[in-house]
Amino acid sequence: MFTEQGPTVRELAVQALSSIEHGYDLLAPKFDHTPYRTPDRVLDAVTAEVRRLGPFDTGLDVCCGTGAGVGVLRRLCRERVVGVDFSAGMLAEARAAFPPEGERPAEQGPAEEAPAVDWVRADARSLPFAPAFDLALSFGAFGHFLPVERFGLFAEVYGSLRPGGRFVFPIGAPPPVGSRAYWTLLGFDAAMRVRNALWRPQFVMYYRTFRLGDVLEDLTRAGFTVRLMPLTELGRRPDGSPRARLVVATRE
């Protein structure tokens, strides 16, 4: 499905009937060949904006998956980068994508001034870190957390940052009511609610529960000072507003 290298319909069905953790363990080998991986143009736009906020020494990719965000952090941080995820399968793919210097194939060449990367298997709702990071980010993972879990997640990130540390992530503008994208996301969320009402274990993945106003409120409750930066590289809507913004939450 999606590409010849991507998962089949049967594989996606098995994943959807699994728990989140096991589902991503199954999907991990083919994840980067699906549309679920954050597009490079989003990664590049975020990198360009966050670089203006630096410099940074240490970075944390929350729910790192196969490591797309770690690639961003390696371009922004000077000393150390950590990827954390609760899927062993996703972490295995991430490790393969970013091997230690001594294990890099000769054709890849040396990693020029790239910081060291560590991988940690843990639940983002209970991060095992002291306040050690200057920068934390996350891409595409928030739909896996119910709204009641969001404040706790943000509080865990807050506790992992040094004073002055930043927590950043992109957030897209909602599709216009009645548009094809609007009905697609509405239909997907409705199908997931029916699935979770009828089947255990649950697979939490919703597209319409991460509303900007609620997100800003929860970030503020967790102790962050928050501002928004337009990601103009990702274009504008017909009314002139940006299609996506970067949320910048600072632990003052």
TrEMBL record:
<dbReference type="Pfam" id="PF08241">
    <property type="entry name" value="Methyltransf_11"/>
</dbReference>
<keyword id="KW-0489">Methyltransferase</keyword>
<protein>
    <submittedName>
        <fullName>Class I SAM-dependent methyltransferase</fullName>
        <ecNumber>2.1.-.-</ecNumber>
    </submittedName>
</protein>
<dbReference type="GO" id="GO:0032259">
    <property type="term" value="P:methylation"/>
</dbReference>
<feature type="domain" description="Methyltransferase type 11">
    <location>
        <begin position="60"/>
        <end position="169"/>
    </location>
</feature>
<dbReference type="InterPro" id="IPR029063">
    <property type="entry name" value="SAM-dependent_MTases_sf"/>
</dbReference>
<keyword id="KW-0808">Transferase</keyword>
<dbReference type="GO" id="GO:0008168">
    <property type="term" value="F:methyltransferase activity"/>
</dbReference>
<dbReference type="InterPro" id="IPR013216">
    <property type="entry name" value="Methyltransf_11"/>
</dbReference>
